[in-house]
Design goal:
The chain has about 250 residues and is of the alpha+beta class. It is built from eleven helices and five strands; from the N terminus they run H-H-E-E-H-H-E-H-H-E-E-H-H-H-H-H.
């Protein structure tokens, strides 16, 4: 690991750790995690799935807002490395397109159409509690090396602690409520993206960047801002006027 990437990894750990002692936005923390993981571990795209109150995996953060990528992510929640990582509690790494096809043919076909030949799924876990997975999609074949696999799992573990820090690990009711709030925020983000994309004539990635920038500059939670945008409670020109946040910020 070169010095630049090592510094970026340390910076990411510091940011995630800060969330343990401060008020934080769950969705923004997960978005930061997936953005940095894609950057650090040589992936082309990434996403985070969380388990909702019914035990169904749902997308809560992604490096791309394209509908085709979301279709692949939804498929991954039912058949693919993501669900395997959540079920097993261990890193699931698929090094080749051939291997992907052997285990999950439908998912492999969809991944191939999007240009992905390798997938790494890292469980979001704390002891025996597994709440979701961090999924990295690669355009080149190959496994995560030992150091990268440890680093990726460590980042996922810290993020999971951040998710669960406000409750006792034995209190499943509070845990479910906390995770459901993050998933509800994602629904608001989807609604706000669609509204903003139509109203401002921009693509989904740009619309998401505008919403994220607006939330950052006003130090508000991403989900709260998205809900307000979807309800048209925020002046459109204020949201559009900011510079969209790039995926790797």
């Amino acid at each position: 690991m070169d010095h630049t990437r090592e510094a970026r990894l340390i910076e990411t750990f510091v940011t995630l750790t800060d969330s343990l002692i401060d008020t934080y936005d769950v969705v923004e923390i997960l978005q930061l995690l997936v953005d940095r993981a894609v950057e650090l571990f040589d992936a082309a795209a990434g996403a985070i799935h969380l388990t909702d109150r019914d035990g169904t995996l749902k997308v809560v953060a992604s490096t791309s807002e394209r509908s085709s990528f979301f279709g692949l992510l939804q498929l991954n929640a039912g058949e693919g490395p993501c669900i395997a990582a959540v079920t097993s509690g261990h890193l699931v790494t698929v090094e080749t397109a051939e291997e992907l096809h052997i285990y999950w043919p439908r998912f492999a076909e969809a991944a191939n159409e999007s240009g992905y030949v390798g997938v790494h799924a890292i469980p979001l876990r704390l002891r025996d509690t597994i709440v979701g997975s961090l999924n990295l999609f690669r355009e080149t074949e190959g496994a995560l090396n030992g150091a990268d696999a440890l680093a990726a799992q460590a980042l996922a573990d810290v993020a999971t602690i951040s998710l669960l820090q406000q409750r006792s690990i034995e209190n499943a009711t509070l845990a479910t409520a906390q995770l459901q709030r993050a998933l509800d925020s994602r629904i608001a983000i989807e609604q706000a993206k669609g509204y903003l994309a139509r109203a401002a004539g921009v693509d989904m990635d740009t619309a998401f960047g505008m919403i994220r920038q607006y939330a950052r500059t006003r130090q508000r939670r991403l989900g709260d801002v998205a809900a307000a945008v979807a309800r048209e409670e925020v002046p459109l020109e204020e949201v559009v006027g900011g510079t969209p946040v790039a995926a790797d910020e």
